[in-house]
From TrEMBL:
Gene Ontology CC annotations of this record: extracellular space
Gene3D superfamilies: ATP:guanido phosphotransferase, N-terminal domain (1.10.135.10), Glutamine synthetase/guanido kinase, catalytic domain (3.30.590.10)
Residues that, per the record, bind ATP: 160-164, 278, 334-338, 362-367
Name under which the protein is recorded: creatine kinase
Keywords tagged on the record: ATP-binding, Kinase, Nucleotide-binding, Transferase
Length: 428
């Protein structure tokens, strides 16, 4: 009996619940227990759309409004063989998320955004608060244009700061549908670029424990190394949500997945998780300018090596950097800090005020978690339509203002007029 992908399951995966195992083999995720029963493969895709009346995500909003789109597009395939069904399976299988409105679809390759544009474009526009089909996305990673404003002059409020984004490599299918050997070729190419990094970015690559794809570490990293990285919040784990499993991102787990980090452990690249690459630059304190500079250096060096090997990042003038989920198109960038603001975050208008400033707040454990002791992860809200420099500057100025308000509240001052003024200024 096969004990490793693509014909079997790895020993690690066999210890997981059966509903997760079903999404970690070679086949698409079909699990009646989780109501994941939509077939996206070309030869099994249903002739009619399932009943979507109880669904609530951006994809099903579009399909309920115009159900004929499914029939018009369901028999089309990209040049690499991706079907509409493979893109929309996760949104059909998952009716909705209790805390956030999800996109409900993923891209299987770069061409999906063009071939299935009649579905992708309205989802993209809805997710990004209005984005026209002829809009052009600006890219600007010139760190000299970053604001010099000090976010936390006292060093009392900001615990850590980070910047993260994703990148995809042109010519390869994206994680939802990429095949076993193709994923291995992609890992080898990306790791070649990562191992070329020098200076403060020099580091090593660690495949997930149990992965057999990387010859220098034939069984992946040790369990101890995995535990160390996960405990510090720097490593992803096996897919444990039906959103991910239905998308196809769990297939052949853990083969060809891993993490690169530099010697100082302040620059990380996740390989072949939800995106082909997820790049993170982070450190304690509020030096976001240094963090972005490191991030920019790393991405440009990886791109240089790709070009030397006749490859490049996926990018379009319309959508910016191409990534798996439409929510991350454009810059894919989230610049943020973990900041302790118990007084300001206790206000009833906390999150609405952030929204008006172009910011968002997540709890200490991620997108739909709660705060711990008034500590929040504050970051830019937008991804598409504004450049990297613009989004980082929105974050810098906004975070600095929030800390000034926190200091005022500590002294018992009323900040209502200032908050209203800042919101009006942002709207203008």
């Amino acid at each position: 009996m096969a004990t490793y992908p693509p014909t079997g399951l790895s020993e690690n995966v066999k210890t997981l619940p059966e509903w997760i195992q079903k999404g970690c083999g070679n086949d698409e995720y079909i699990c009646e227990e989780k109501n994941a029963t939509f077939y996206g493969a070309a030869d099994k895709m249903p002739a009619e759309l399932p009943d979507l009346k109880d669904h609530s995500n951006f994809l099903t909003d579009v399909l309920k409004k115009n159900p004929e789109l499914y029939k018009q597009l369901k028999d089309k395939k990209t040049k690499l063989g991706v079907t509409l069904g493979q893109c929309i399976k996760t949104g059909i299988d998952n009716k909705g998320h209790p805390m956030i409105k999800t996109c409900g679809l993923v891209a299987g390759d770069e061409e999906c955004f063009e071939l299935f544009a009649d579905i992708f474009e309205p989802v993209i526009s809805a997710r990004h608060n209005g984005y026209a089909r002829d809009a052009v996305h600006p890219t600007d990673l010139d760190v000299s244009k970053l604001s010099d404003t000090k976010i936390d002059p006292t060093g009392k409020y900001v615990l850590t700061s980070r910047c993260r984004t994703g990148r995809s490599v042109r010519g390869f299918k994206l994680p939802p549908v990429i095949e076993f050997e193709e994923r291995r070729k992609l890992e080898a190419l990306v790791v070649k670029g990562l191992l070329s990094l020098e200076g403060e970015l020099k580091g090593d690559y660690y495949p997930l424990h149990g992965s057999k794809s990387y010859a220098p570490k034939p069984t992946g990293m040790s369990l101890e190394k995995e535990e160390e990285l996960r405990k510090a919040g720097n490593l992803f784990q096996e897919p444990d949500s039906t959103l991910l499993l239905s998308s196809g991102c769990g297939r052949h787990w853990p083969d060809s997945r891993g993490i690169f980090h530099n010697e100082a452990s302040n620059f990380f690249v996740w390989v072949n998780e939800e995106d082909q690459m997820r790049i993170v630059s982070m450190e304690k304190g509020d030096d976001i300018k240094g963090i972005i500079t490191r991030f920019s250096l790393g991405t440009s060096q990886i791109q240089k090596v790709l070009k030397e090997n006749d490859a490049d990042f996926m990018r379009s003038d319309h959508l910016g950097w191409i990534l798996t989920c439409p929510s991350n198109l454009g810059t894919g960038l989230r610049a943020g800090c973990m900041v302790k603001i118990p007084h300001f975050s206790a206000r009833a208008d906390f999150k609405s005020c952030l929204g008006k400033m172009g910011l968002q707040a997540r709890g200490t454990a991620g997108v739909d978690s709660a705060s711990t002791g008034g500590t929040w992860d504050i970051s830019n809200a937008d991804r598409l339509g504004k450049s990297e420099v613009d989004l980082v500057n929105i974050f810098i100025e906004g975070a600095a203002q929030i800390i000034r308000w926190e200091q005022a509240l500590e002294k018992g001052e009323n900040i209502d007029a200032e908050v209203e003024k800042a919101s009006m200024k942002t709207k203008a």
